[in-house]
Amino acid sequence: MTDSRVTVREVARAAGVSVATVSRVINHNGRFSAQTEARVREAIERLHYQPNQLARGLRQQRADAVGVIVPNISNEFFSRMIVTLQAGLFAAGLSIVIYNTNHDPDMERQCHASLAAQRVSGIVSANSLEDVRAAVRRDVPTLYIDREVPEGGLGPNVSSVMSDNVASGRLAARELARSGCARPMVLTATAGFPVTEVRTRSFAQELARLGVPLDKKRVIHPPATDFPSGHDAVAAALDAGLDFDGVFAQTDRLAMGALEALHERGVRVPEDVAVVGHDDILLARFGRPPLTTIAQDPERIGSLAAQIMLQMIAGELEQGRHELVPVRLVRRESTMRGQNVA
Amino acid sequence: MTDSRVTVREVARAAGVSVATVSRVINHNGRFSAQTEARVREAIERLHYQPNQLARGLRQQRADAVGVIVPNISNEFFSRMIVTLQAGLFAAGLSIVIYNTNHDPDMERQCHASLAAQRVSGIVSANSLEDVRAAVRRDVPTLYIDREVPEGGLGPNVSSVMSDNVASGRLAARELARSGCARPMVLTATAGFPVTEVRTRSFAQELARLGVPLDKKRVIHPPATDFPSGHDAVAAALDAGLDFDGVFAQTDRLAMGALEALHERGVRVPEDVAVVGHDDILLARFGRPPLTTIAQDPERIGSLAAQIMLQMIAGELEQGRHELVPVRLVRRESTMRGQNVA
DNA sequence: TTGAAAGCGCTAACAA
DNA sequence: TTGTTAGCGCTTTCAA
Q1: Quick check: A153 and A186 in contact, CB under 8 A?
Q2: Whole-angstrom Cα distance, residue B7 to residue B3?
Q3: pLDDT tens digits, B280-320
Q4: At what angle do helices A76-90 and A298-313 cross, to 10 degrees?
Q5: What letter would DSSP give residue B100?
Q6: CA–CA separation, A161 vs A155, rounded Å?
Q7: Using DSSP, how many helices (H) and how many strands (E) does chain B show?
Q8: pTM here?
Q9: Closest nt by CA–C1' to A49
Q10: Which residue on chain B is closest to A63 by alpha carbon?
Q11: Strands (E), B212-302
Q12: What is the spatial distance, in angstroms and rounded to an integer, between the CA atom of B258 and the C1' atom of C12?
């Protein structure tokens, strides 16, 4: 197995060269004869040499690692994103160090402090609550997921990747309109989801364009983005006698809760109320009825994030990149009525 | 913010002491006067000093980090486990470096090589495919999740945590027996899940004890552990005319696929066939009908893993700890018949 | 093309 | 109680 006690010195001795030469061969730096290279490689192989990343990082003033800060890795969206992010960075020799913040700003600060102490080469921060300007101050390549960045960007060290939330709102609006909804309701995803307003605004605009007004009293802000919040919000709306015939829930978990509440009260979906969710998590197809939803593409977001991060670390970017990842409507039974049935 | 360019030297100068003293204060090592400590702490505070973990790690011959190797972090079980694992280690000043192997032994080897190069203080390895003896050779505290370790353990540097799989099999057997099943079928979770056989064996034993024999031809090994595999396995069984009135599926995703296949063929659950899953993932309560399942406790597994890992790293263990985490039956409609209805 | 040596920031052994 | 200093393993000047 890998004997972690072998150092450059021993490789150098075994190959009959200096440590500098060994280093050059390993890093493809400077010049050396093919013969020397062969001897060094043979020694590395034979001794099972593994360069000490700590020493390397200390010398280079940065670790071959990227910090990843997410609200909660057990959220399907983040965990799926991380799979491709990790793979993309690993292929380039970078490892990832992960932290959960649980949407706690103080925890987020602690994570940044820890990453600074580790001298990571970059930071991927999802649903960050901090001021994006902090990234500029830190001077470490930072990539935000699902976070609006000011017009004009923030220099070469700050990039962002997120779903096309304007398209999300638009698609949801069209789908409900096509289903014949006249009084749509929105369940937003406020807490810690900075992109929710973009979706709501775009949803309202597209509805207006289609001649369906969105009444403010039908924009509801549940306390969280989970199943119980969706359930309780809709149950409360029904109790209050709120009149609605469509729901755009900004997470699938909210939507599933909404379906449950509607089912309990005997409100038929989609006949009486059409429902559109957001994210297309595994659960969505198991809704009662199966849930129409706006699918995000976390795998694409993760691999794009890896690619951009590598560019930033390599200093290849004059300006940060700010990418929008397409979303798509996945139509299931929860909106199958009117035009949609055809 | 944290200025990562400040070093011990500058703190020492600012506090009017030597670097050694600063180091002592930071690490609570050796003796120093309260007055000195106050001065040093003040300087640290004022300069926003952050010890360089790379230098520290190099000096100590190990990084304050733990490697975590899982088949796929987007599997709900692993991501939930990692949340508490990460929190427990973070509280002790350790960060976690994560890798996905996708059940690929070669990738697993690469991950270990990378972790060795990073001189991590410990490794948590879930569903490992390697020979457990490799951990002894590596000489780094290793904690296996869901992996049997030879009787007598493997010394102080190898521990393990897993669900009580014997109980899993037993609970599933009793539940199906109570539902009146006479011809139960098993969908195993072969690929990369080394604990599946324990469950099957325990299931068979308990059934036998209850007077219900488990026919070998009703033990089926789907190619994977996901929804389609469960669906296809059950569809094939029905096509082949296999006679069964109960299913123990060793992952909930398999079970959900089974439910779907049964539904398609008009086989009623639980009236004609009772179904028990395993894991209690979010999906389970949305089964048609809601799925009875054996709940694992990934949060408990993660926090226990953190605790044991810290003990191993601190050298507090004479022998590795090998812990079984309780599972429990979550009864839902998919087994609600016979005795179970009462 | 190669080697010698400085030094990254820290901790710990030894001295005072 | 505190300071001086060697050295962890590596990369990268500078010299040859």
Answers
A1: no
A2: 10
A3: 999 999 999 999 999 999 999 999 999 999 999 999 999 99
A4: 40
A5: E
A6: 15
A7: 12, 12
A8: 0.94
A9: D9
A10: B54
A11: 219-220, 246-249, 274-279, 292-295
A12: 62
